[in-house]
Structures are given as C-alpha cells and as structure tokens.
C-alpha cells in the first residue's frame, strides 16, 4: 500500500488552544480511515487544514507525493482532494440535478452560480446524473432540494463532492442528524465508493465507524493517541480512558 496523504508534524493553535498538535498520519490509497475523538478534539480543524481552508502554523501535508501545505483550496480540489459541501451551498429551489450540475460547472472553472445550468449540456448532466446515482438519489434528480429529507441533503452534498471526481474524499460527520435507517443507507453508499475513492471519515456514530473503517485514528486534545485496525482501537486502554474519562482509568 502507498499513502495518498501524508501529514507530518502538523501544528495549529488558536490562542492557547493546541487544536492540532504534532499530528503525524498516513492515509493509504483505497482505505476508509476514520478519525474519532471527543468534542473539541480538533477533528474539524484538521480537515480544514487538509482542504486548505485553514493554514497550519507549521508542519507538512503531502497529497499523492506532492507538498500541498501552502496550495490554495481550489488547486487542491483540482488535484482530486474534495471535502463535502456544507448544506448552505445547496440551492433549495433548484433540483438535485441542477445543484450537482453547478458543482460540475464550478469544478470546470465556471463559477457563475447565479444562473441555472442548461439542462441539455451533456458535459454537465452526465457526470451529475452519475454522481446522483452513486449516492442513491437518481430517482429524485428532478425534485427541488427543499422537497427532500435531511438525510438526502447529506447524500446530495456527497454527490456534489463526487461530481468533481476526487481521489480523496474528506467527510466531516456525514451521518450527523440522520436517523438509524438513513445512517445504514449511507454506510452502504460509502462502502460502494470504497477502493475507487479513498475516504477520510470523521464520525461520531461508532456503529457506522466500525462498520466502515479499515483503520481508525483517535484524536484527543489535538494529538493522535492511537492509529490502528478497528479491533485494536476498541481494545486500546488509552482510547477507553479518553472516552470514558479519568475516573475509569
Ligand atoms: N476559529 C477558531 N478560533 C478559535 N478557536 C477555535 C477555532 N476553531 C476551533 N477552535 C478550537 O479548537 C479546538 C478544536 O475544535 P474542532 O472544531 O476542530 O473540534 P472537533 O473535534 O471538530 O469537535 P466536534 O466533535 O465538536 O465537531 C476547540 O477547542 C475549538 O474551540
Ligand atoms: Mg467538528
């Protein structure tokens, strides 16, 4: 196996808070690598540095062997590194298809997001429909976004990320706010993306994490305290202590 993403001694602090502290992590090609950790552990801060929204204080990030530590966000996206869009980037009165077409269009360098993309442009409709099919939303392609459920919005965000044909997907709590059935559906969708896409998954739903992850890293107070196969992480004393609190140590 080779690493698609290499993180070396990454540091980021906010005032006195070390949100990312000496983080070392390799994400291997084709794996689903989950990052778990308590609230405020620094998971979102780490993702933001990988996508380029936040600049690290020090350290290095390499993607497919290239140093991207100071590479702008849109260049990283073009290189094949995508994070899910936030719900706010979904236009509620446009159809799911139109929303994904906009993501394709933006990726091709046209950021005129005020106009509806033309429905008869196959260079937009084909990748958009393919992305919707992969997340199980093709039957609702012509529905307006406001008419679909919260879970389907989250699936739509993944389709919008997939439309840019990334090799590495960064997912920050994709199951948040989903019911059990929607979560199980998304677990199956992510399993279907595996191998072709490498996935770095931040998720609080432990059933989903243990169903999906090839490896898990545990982040506590900005530091990775353990990385390993799910069974090793489940039995790790440091991890149990971090989750159960000092009194259980
Ligand atoms: N822009 C910011 N300015 C100041 N402090 C910040 C900022 N962003 C994050 N922090 C702090 O950095 C730490 C890590 O926050 P982060 O959001 O990365 O945690 P998280 O692991 O994603 O938490 P959660 O599970 O709640 O999503 C927290 O102490 C947080 O308050
Ligand atoms: Mg977070």
Write the layout of secondary structure elements.
Elements: E1 3-14, E2 17-28, E3 32-36, H1 43-51, E4 58-63, E5 66-67, H2 73-79, E6 81-83, H3 96-107, H4 122-134, H5 150-162, E7 168-172, H6 180-193, E8 198-202, H7 206-212, E9 215-220, E10 223-228, H8 230-234, H9 237-244
Parallel strand pairs: 3-8, 3-9, 6-7, 7-8
Antiparallel strand pairs: 1-2, 1-4, 4-5, 9-10
Helix pairs in contact: 3-4, 3-5, 4-5
Short description:
By secondary structure, this protein is of the alpha/beta class. The protein has helices spanning 43-51, 73-79, 96-107, 122-134, 150-162, 180-193, 206-212, 230-234, 237-244; strands spanning 3-14, 17-28, 32-36, 58-63, 66-67, 81-83, 168-172, 198-202, 215-220, 223-228. The longest helix has 14 residues, at 180-193.
Structural overview:
With 249 residues, the chain is α/β, with parallel strands linked by helices. It has nine helices and ten strands. The chain has helices at residues 43-51, 73-79, 96-107, 122-134, 150-162, 180-193, 206-212, 230-234, 237-244, and strands spanning 3-14, 17-28, 32-36, 58-63, 66-67, 81-83, 168-172, 198-202, 215-220, 223-228. It has a six-stranded mixed β-sheet, sandwiched between helices. Strand 9 (215-220) and strand 10 (223-228) form a beta hairpin. Helix 3 (96-107) packs parallel to helix 5. The radius of gyration is 18 Å and the shape is globular. The structure holds adenosine-5'-triphosphate (ATP) and magnesium ion (MG). Magnesium ion binds at residues 43-44. The site of magnesium ion has 2 residues, from helix 1.
């Amino acid at each position: 196996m080779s690493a698609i993403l290499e993180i070396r001694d990454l540091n980021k602090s906010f005032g006195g808070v070390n949100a990312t502290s000496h983080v070392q992590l390799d994400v291997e090609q084709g794996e689903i690598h989950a990052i778990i950790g308590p609230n405020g552990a620094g998971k979102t801060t780490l993702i933001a540095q990988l996508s380029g929204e936040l600049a690290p204080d020090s350290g290095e990030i390499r993607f497919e062997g290239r140093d991207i530590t100071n590479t702008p966000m849109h260049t990283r996206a073009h290189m094949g590194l995508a994070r899910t869009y936030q719900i706010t980037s979904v236009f509620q009165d446009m159809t799911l298809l139109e929303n994904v077409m906009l993501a394709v269009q933006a990726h091709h360098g046209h950021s005129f997001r005020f106009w509806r993309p033309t429905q008869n442009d196959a260079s937009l409709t084909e990748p958009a429909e393919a992305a919707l099919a992969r997340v199980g939303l093709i039957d609702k392609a012509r529905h307006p976004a406001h008419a679909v459920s919260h879970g389907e919005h989250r699936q739509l965000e993944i389709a919008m990320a997939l439309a840019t044909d990334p090799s590495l997907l960064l997912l920050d709590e994709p199951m948040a706010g989903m019911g059990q059935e929607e979560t199980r559906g998304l677990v199956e969708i992510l399993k279907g993306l595996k191998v072709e896409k490498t996935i770095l998954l931040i998720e609080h739903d432990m059933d989903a994490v243990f169903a999906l992850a090839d490896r898990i890293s545990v982040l506590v107070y900005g530091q990775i305290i353990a990385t390993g196969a799910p069974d090793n992480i489940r039995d790790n004393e440091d991890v149990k202590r971090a989750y159960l609190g000092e009194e259980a140590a």
